[in-house]
Specification:
0% helix, mainly beta, single chain, 7-stranded mixed sheet, 4-stranded antiparallel sheet, globular
């Protein structure tokens, strides 16, 4: 079983930045594709970004391209989401997730393990 501790969420003004962290424990972190998802009140959970296991290939949802950057440090068993130029519509609970397969995917159902989420609120 893979477990996560997420951190870095909070309240930020529009145009500001936050860096989310997701520290994993339990199994070999580097075998997993890692993703970030988010869920706003009254909406379905949606894909944000994903990063490959070793090659560190990346993919992003269109609304966050050019503003968010996903990265990972396999030595620290941690995946990050750097969020810049934040907008009120980025307000959500952000979840990290792990996929026990080699390919990147945006599909929520293809991820096997989930964190508990961290709240990000963008407001003036």
């Amino acid at each position: 079983q893979l477990q996560f501790v997420e951190s870095g969420g909070g309240l930020v003004q529009p145009g500001g930045s936050l860096r989310l962290s997701c520290a994993a424990s339990g199994r070999t972190f580097s075998r997993y594709v890692m993703g970030w998802f988010r869920q706003a009140p009254g909406k379905e959970r949606e894909f944000v970004a994903a990063i490959g296991r070793i090659s560190f290939s990346k993919t992003y949802a269109e609304p966050v391209k050019g503003r968010f950057t996903i990265s990972r440090d396999n030595a620290k068993n941690t995946v990050y989401l750097q969020m810049n130029s934040l907008k009120p519509e980025d307000t959500s609970i952000y979840y990290c997730a792990a996929r026990d397969a080699p390919t990147l995917t945006m599909a929520l159902a293809e991820y096997d393990y989930w964190g508990q989420g961290t709240q990000v609120t963008v407001s003036s």
